[in-house]
Amino acid sequence: MKKQGGWKWSVLVALVVILIVSPLYFIAIGGFMSTEEIFYKPPYLFPPRPTLAYYREALSTLLPYIKNSFAISFGTLLLTLMVALPAAFVITKFQFLFKNSLSFLFAFVQMLPYTAIIIPLFLMFTKLKLIDSHIGVVLALSVFLAPFAIIILRSYMASVPSGLIEAALIDGASYFTIFTKVFLPLSAPGIASVSILVFLLAWGNFIVPLAFIKQETMRPISIGLYVFIGQYGVEWNKLMAGSMIYTIPPLVVALLAGKAIIAGLTAGALKE
Length: 272
Hints:
It is built from twelve helices and two strands. Helices cover about 75% and strands about 0% of the residues. A two-stranded antiparallel ribbon has the order 1-2. It has helices spanning about 1-30, 35-40, 55-95, 100-110, 115-125, 135-155, 165-170, 175-185, 190-205, 205-210, 220-225, 235-265, and strands at about 230, 235.
């Protein structure tokens, strides 16, 4: 019975893959075609006269924005880990007042839309003169992503035996030493998965940089793609080429680290 019904699942999976991949494919080949070829009917399945000119022009135009995106993404990743790692360790292995309330607060922040927090953050950062700076964007993104990272790291660190802390304390180790020498190495897969997810979320964020950065030269590529949308029309081939360039870093990360993400998210879910 399983063999007879197996082809149905294969067809279903193939349809889902086609629905997901086909838009990406047409965007990719659109960067090799002229505007007339993009809107030709019926649409071309392959570029009739492919050229790299539009990809080169898009890359040249977007290069400053790409640098800004890397600066913001890596800055957010660093700050988020600096906050989330010790916080997850303390919440997981220590008892203190309002511990459950704090955990609920982290989960509640994840349910809030960006627009619910971004306005008060904007007003605070205006007084702190953090508008139009990458530092302000990094801080704002970390406000959203640190609770997310803490939730994931907490579930992973919970699988580390508490007996290791007791054994280390008996040997005279401090809590800082236990954190850096015991928990961080044992939590490496979870840290890797959180790092990848935080980087991807920071790279793809649109609304926070749009609200906090007004200078065109400081904006990331998520906003920089708008340079191809002008008052008198859209440069579709360059926009498609730029969109593919925009997706390359997260696509590479997802392909190379997909198993690490799954392993880190599911680690600690089961007790042996």
